[in-house]
Amino acid sequence: MKSITKYIKYLLVLLFALSLYQCEENYTENISDNPKITLSVPTAPGHAQYKVQVESGYDITVPVKISSSSNLKEFKITKTLNLNADPSFGDNGVMTVFNSDKGKDFDYSFTYIPSTQDVDQLVGFTFTAVNNDGSVSESDLTLVVTLSPRDNLPRKRWNLKSVLWVTNPDHPNQESISDCEKDNSMLLNADGTMSVDYGTDTGSGNCAYDGLTVYDSWELTPDDQYFIRTSHGLFTPDVEVTDTFVVRTLTVQQFAIEQTVDLSVFGGGTDEKFLYVYDAGPR
């Protein structure tokens, strides 16, 4: 009796394994590679799956190649955000690249700029092609979007931690921050405006002139190489002053910018460089 029971158990295991194999075989047979859609980016596990890591605010370009045994008649791209159609993309989440005869081969460059709304979300793009035989195929692209240092700037308060006199002839990179500046901070707003907080230690000594300069706007050049700030004097509102800084460090934790100033009237050089180092803190 025990041998019969044991035999039945083995038979059930064999039948289960066979059913799994048949399901996998049927699944493979149902996958269409005509038309064939190929993305020139890293692949991911699964059939026609791709994955790319990117930072917000920086465009990504994906070369797409489609080949078919008969003429292509439609190609569209669908974006999902957390598995739901993203209405901000294309027409309610769908962008139609073409819906007319395009021949058997088609090359396309898909460009997308991830926004801060995509950060740490499940961002997916489905590329769908249809040919004149009615065959449909799809390829899926997953974007892993992290917050870029650029987009992080308006999300933090930037606390002044150091002012280095880079070109000091006697002591290069000499720390030159005044005690009254150590509680200074700035806010760089998303709309391009900015403000400076001088803290509680202000209005005397080396900080006697705090508040006489009103800061109006800020801009980071597209290549992240320069930080441009505009301001005006409290008593000269019609005179705009533009200062340009070289960006030396730009991370989500630190922002360091270098300014060249003319100190010849004070006995210094005409091209003295100062490096302002800011650390990120809660806004």
From TrEMBL:
Highest taxon in the source lineage: Bacteria
Keywords: Signal
Position of the signal peptide: 1-22
Keyword Signal carried by entry: yes
Protein name: Uncharacterized protein
Natural source organism: Prolixibacter denitrificans
